[in-house]
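Researcher: We plan to redesign the surface later, but first we want a full-length starting point. Tokens attached.
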């Protein structure tokens, strides 16, 4: 599996995935802004269709995984794991020392995936994310990349 640069030509398809998996989605214009430096967008395409994407923010030697998502119809095939592997390798090749992310406390599948890739819980942000019935916590996680082979 190879990550391809996510450009504005494919951003509508990627944004549709974003809307499908997020309770409160970014607007298309905000999403497109995240494809310009210091952000980078990457995607997976199968048969000409975007089925997964990630958005990274690079500041000094830290990467922040702003979002990583797989289309609901393509989930359960290992694409998220493969995309996370490729994303972390990309961060290493750019000389990043750490990778940060936030995840909803209820997203146990994602938390398990991140933990299996070396992410550790750094803090809990109480009531950070809106939900249909109120708010839920965000878990801030970080992975050390420095010294790991690219």
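Model: Full-length starting sequence:
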């Amino acid at each position: 599996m190879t990550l391809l640069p996510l450009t504005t030509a494919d951003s509508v398809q990627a944004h549709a995935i974003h809307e499908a998996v997020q309770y409160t989605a970014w607007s298309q214009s905000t999403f497109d802004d995240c494809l310009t430096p210091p952000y980078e967008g990457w995607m997976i395409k199968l048969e000409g269709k975007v089925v997964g994407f990630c958005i990274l923010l690079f500041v000094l030697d830290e990467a922040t995984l702003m979002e990583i998502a797989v289309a609901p119809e393509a989930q359960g095939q290992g694409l998220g794991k493969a995309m996370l592997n490729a994303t972390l390798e990309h961060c290493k090749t750019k000389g990043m020392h750490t990778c940060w992310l936030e995840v909803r406390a209820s997203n146990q599948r994602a938390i398990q995936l991140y933990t299996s890739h070396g992410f550790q819980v750094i803090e809990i942000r109480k009531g950070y994310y809106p939900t249909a019935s109120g708010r839920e916590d965000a878990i801030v996680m970080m992975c050390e990349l420095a010294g790991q082979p690219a």
